[in-house]
Amino acid sequence: MLALGKSLTKALAARTLAPQVCSSFATGPRQYDGTFYEFRTYCIKPSKMNEFLENVKKNIHLQTAHSELVGFWTVELGGRIDKVFHIWKYDNFAHQTEVRKALANDKEWREQLLIPVMGLTDKQESEITYLVPWCKLEKPPKEGVYELVTFQMKPGGPALWGDTFKRAVNAHVDLGYSKLIGVFHTEYGALNRVHVLWWNESADSRAAGRHQSHEDPRVVAAVRESVNYLVSQQNMLLIPTSYSPLK
């Protein structure tokens, strides 16, 4: 028994000291925090946008009583018009399930918010995202406009393109013309997709900052490296609603 015990101890020690080969297949830093953000995009029926926004403004409290709203915007420029974009925060998937059960049992929410809103909506999209490990959710210094830039990266995950993407984002941050609100990596939805949410004082200040960044050698070098892993990108100019926590 003693010999067997010694053999077992040696085997466990060898396993502990052995290189963890499987870690080379990791797609990026491990996600320890269960908190995630649901991105929802609604395409509103033509001519129904005002009615939709008025209904949400009047009744959004029925949903925020159950879950945390991060921001709610209308799409001003980029892609389809008559579109709204909103972000909801959850502690984990169990929390999201609890919220959905509570909403399903909330008659007032169903009758005053859900049913009217669904009647004004053409299409809904949902993505589950995590903040990347090197970024936290920030707040703007004052009211302004937002830009959501979506990057579709090559398959392979952050282990392939994470470091170069981080350098490209930070190169823009260092110029100071725009404030970084958050960088989100998709968990459910289109994979290898990263959303970067920026705040600007105005659309004109954003345009001026972009022109400046195009002439900065640090930005040019960082972006040139990152685009080697880029498949496509698009952006939207977002206007916060009066009831959006992020203004």
Automatic annotation (TrEMBL):
Chain ranges of the NIPSNAP domain: 37-136, 146-245
Cross-referenced SUPFAM superfamilies: Dimeric alpha+beta barrel
Gene Ontology CC terms: mitochondrion
Coiled-coil stretches noted in the UniProt entry, renumbered to this chain: none
Superkingdom of origin: Eukaryota
Biological-process GO terms, alphabetical: mitophagy
Short name of one Pfam family: NIPSNAP
Similarity field: Belongs to the NipSnap family.
Name of the protein: Nipsnap homolog 3B
Species the sequence originates in: Phocoena sinus (Vaquita)
